[in-house]
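Batch job 17 of 40 flagged for manual review because the log was empty.
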Amino acid sequence: MLSVQNINVYYGKIHAVKGVSFDVNEGEIVTLIGANGAGKSTVLKTVSGLLRSTTGKIDFAGKDLMHVAPHKIVPMGLAHVPEGRRIFQAMTVEENLEMGAYVGKPSETAEHLENVFARFPRLLERRKQIAGTLSGGEQQMLAMGRGLMSSPKLLMLDEPSMGLAPILVEQIFDIIKELRDHGTTILLVEQNARMALKIADRGYVLETGKIVLSGTGAELLSSPAVKKAYLGG
């Protein structure tokens, strides 16, 4: 579904992503793990057109994304839930979700809303509440729900567990697994390497902008190098 080949991304003179290549197959959860500043979020922003690579190729569902504007990528079936949630604080829960449906047919919005509320009952309870007054966990659910409103083939999630209590982290990861089981392909960026690798079909380890290891989730979980660097043992 997604093939990223030899991308190089710079912030001014800083070479943030160095020759990164990876694939995501349909129906998989693929995770990118690594320390803060390893280039994980930069990779996602490059796939969704917010940043540009100076080299290589990004192919999504058979189409080249290298020169496609970000707002044209969403209707192609790719949604990006950014780090820090980035919800519209002054709007209601329902209005935030409707913003996620702007690329779809208006006639389908009600159905997509119903699907999101079925997956996130808490959002249904709070549909008229101002989004900025939600808890951190609820805001994360809202950000994910907004991403799902465009019925993406591929959902990219950037640090969905950041700042959440452990019980909410479990809930978010259960929802990610459920999304995969219901046909949404997921590209997941996470600092919580243990949780990410437990649910991932495959994973890639980024260090200072380069992929240094790859394998199945189980292989990386049992890798001595990954254990030492990211799993505290």
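Reviewer: the log was empty due to a logging misconfiguration, but the result itself is present. Residues 166-181 form the longest helix (16 residues). Unflagging and moving on to job 18.
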